Known about the structure:
This protein is an all-beta fold. The chain is built from one helix and 41 strands. The strands form ten sheets. The protein has a six-stranded mixed β-sheet, with no helix packed on it. Strands 1, 2, 39, 40 and 41 form a five-stranded antiparallel β-sheet that branches. Strand 37 and strand 38 form a beta hairpin. The longest helix is centred in the middle third of the chain and has 4 residues, at 234-237. The radius of gyration is 24 Å and the shape is globular. It starts with a strand and ends with a strand.
Amino acid sequence: xxxxxxEKILRVNNQLCYFSTNGKYLAIAFQANLIxxxxxxxxxxxxxxxxxxxxxxxxxxxxxxILCANIKKALVQVYSLNYPQWKYKLIEGSAGLASITWSxxxxxxxxxxxxxxxxxxxxxxxxxxxxxxxxxxxxFNKLMFSPNGDRLAVIITDNGHETVDIYKxxxxxxxxxxxxxxxxxxxxxxWSPDNDLLCIWCSLSNESxxxxxxxxxxxxxxxxxxxxxxxxxxxxxxxxxxxxxxENVKWSASGQLLAVIGFNEVIVVLNHVTWDPILQxxxxxxxxxxxxxxxxxxxxxxxxxxxxKPSILxxxxxxxEESGRPLNIKIGRIDNNNKFSxxxxxxxxxxxxxxxxxxxxxxxxxxxxxxxxxADYIDYLLLxxxxxxxxxxxxxxxxxxxxxxxxxxxxxPDKALCIPTPNxxxxxxxxxxxxxxxxxxxxxxxxxxxxxxxxx
Length: 456
């Protein structure tokens, strides 16, 4: 496949260019200007001037409103496509502004204070504001909307006691307060795709455990502890690495699988019936000699024979299938300036169909594992530079990988390709259009709208 430019390259603020959720519009932020274009005609629908440099934008779920924010100065403005003369302005006070997002009803904005200890809920209709205090500031996954937006789960700590409070978003009142007595600490929460189940876990290595709470049955329906792995026989136990702690979890799109990530390069996949492990993967630094069924694609550089001195300009990058075994996976450099950081899995994303899981660990920054959960096979991408981002196609089994270079790496179950970027843009990330045919390619303060030339 090759790339086709659909529009001239545009300058933007730090990758601030997004399709609306219905795919009709494209919002572009450059300096203090917000421009909204029609995706079919590329005509400008509306343009707005923000009161400062735009640092963040986000479409409302109904695609009518769009918010702009300057996080450092705690300034927020909301614009309407249908009523361009209307705008809503919000200035956060002494609490400061760490982040902002839309509620599902398009009528409220949620801001997180600088120290991550308070959520403020702002009404666009009557300018009122509600507060949820005492958030547990030491965890990353401290608040999460259910996929349909009807509920908001928040980790609260009050006088040394930790709970998960569930709010109904139509009136912002608590519907449930979960005590979670089976957990010594609450480290994260995650809703299932069907909005019914809430996964709550404790990350501590010696006390790691997760529980599954059902909002329909109003009780815990499952529990998993890495320390009590009942599904592995004594014979197999020596071959399987024990999961150490729970770093994070990730639901498949169907909600039938839950991937649990440990702190020791181990991932286990739980089923949704018994909540026991059915698959396990250890990110080994060596592709062993008996591992010939899995595909390994390695990035190679071919220099021009006519060139006396090799350079980037006269070289070509390709992905070639490597058949030799064993193969050592390149280990990244350790940052001596950050002695307290722990290398972890920083990319773990299911494909849209839920069959494949793409994984990258900070220990192996230039390697991507692509795990087929049905066949329990793995494809490897061994690249030369650090992988900065991946993006699954929302419709097809098709993956784009980015390494902060002038190439895009493309993977499908049949093959893997290396594609030059248009105008040698340094590819950092991408944002797919909902139709799965077009995407925005992000570079340094510039973007290009690209399309795969041959159809799926």
